[in-house]
Specification:
Length: 323
């Protein structure tokens, strides 16, 4: 593939690399940043990994997660930037102006709406995770995938496929994962670190969300909300990965679309979408300037919680006639 050759040439040629991804990073963005960072470091390159937000606690077990910073000296200079798992400049947050000034911009992404952000765009919407693309890039460059890199890539694929249960999971996903297991990744270890280290407050929060669960009249759409009142009870700074509660709600028979609304304050509402049975929630999220994938998407709406709920539910009912 020509684009892999071009990216390889940049990585071989340049010396100072900035690596970044989207705001509120997930397992795929964190895992791929670290995998590429480790590879470039082994190549003798100077690597800086910078995100708008810090690493969520659940991903702190990944090797060299302390490399990822959320602030930078103003005098730092770079030859190239690698933007991962991001289809829009706005999604990079306050890192975007810095990245846009760098002469060589590499964008590796798998979102269906991605048109690329730089001169070197490796876009593949058939990839279940950017980690699959990074795996191919590393193999293309004939670099050795170390145990550390394998752990990071496995985490990216596992989280973006919902532990291999989402429809984006492919034969290729399992092939890559089998190779990562051969290198030494322990699935039980990764699962434990990601999903079996909940603190008391997060469990209480999940209980509140389930107790506040609502269903549409046709029982095809289910939603719940993290309100200011709930956050006051459990703590405003609680780290919460929504996948577990979304998965439980998604398992309800007859429910095809699941929504989680989170009040971010200042009339900003984060909406997580999940779906099954062929419902394309990406098409809905993009109407609110969001993005994602067919079965998993998200957006941020500038509105009150009540208005955001009404807007999203009306949109679902108007464009989806599937029940």
């Amino acid at each position: 593939m020509k684009i892999l050759n071009l990216i390889e040439n940049i990585m071989e040629k340049e010396e100072r690399f900035l690596i970044t991804s989207h705001v509120r990073p997930d397992g795929d963005s964190i895992g791929t940043q670290l995998a590429i960072g480790i590879m470039l470091n082994e190549m003798g390159k100077k690597v800086t990994i910078l995100n708008d937000d810090p690493v969520p606690k659940c991903y702190s077990f990944l090797p060299h997660s302390d490399w990822i910073k959320s602030s930078l000296n103003n005098d730092s200079q770079f030859d190239a930037v690698i933007i991962l798992d991001c289809s829009e400049w706005e999604r990079i947050g306050r890192i975007a102006p810095l990245a846009q000034k760098i002469s060589a911009i590499i964008n590796i992404d798998h979102h269906v709406d991605s048109a690329g952000l730089g001169q070197y765009n490796y876009i593949d919407s058939s990839a279940a995770a950017v980690a699959e693309q990074v795996y191919r890039l590393i193999k293309h460059m004939k670099r050795n995938i170390t145990n550390e890199m394998a752990l990071c890539l496995y985490t990216g694929i596992m989280t973006d496929t919902g532990s291999f249960k989402h429809g984006n999971t492919t034969v290729n996903s399992h092939h890559i994962v089998s190779e990562l297991l051969k290198i030494g990744v322990k699935p039980n270890f990764v699962h434990h670190m990601l999903y079996e280290r909940n603190n008391f407050s997060s469990i209480v929060l999940q209980g509140m969300l389930l107790s506040n669960l609502q269903l549409s009249n046709d029982k095809c759409v289910a939603w719940t909300s993290i309100t200011k009142e709930i956050l006051k009870k459990v703590g405003y700074n609680i780290e919460f990965e929504p996948e577990s509660v979304l998965g439980m709600i998604r398992s309800i028979e007859g429910v095809d679309v699941v929504l989680l609304f989170r009040d971010l304050g200042e009339d900003k509402i984060k909406v997580n979408f999940r779906s099954k049975n062929g419902v394309d929630v990406w098409q809905i999220a993009r109407k609110f300037d969001g993005g994602g994938h067919k079965q998993a998407a998200g957006c941020v709406i500038n509105a009150t919680l009540e208005d955001a709920q009404q807007m999203v539910l009306q949109e679902i009912m108007s464009v989806m006639n599937y029940c």
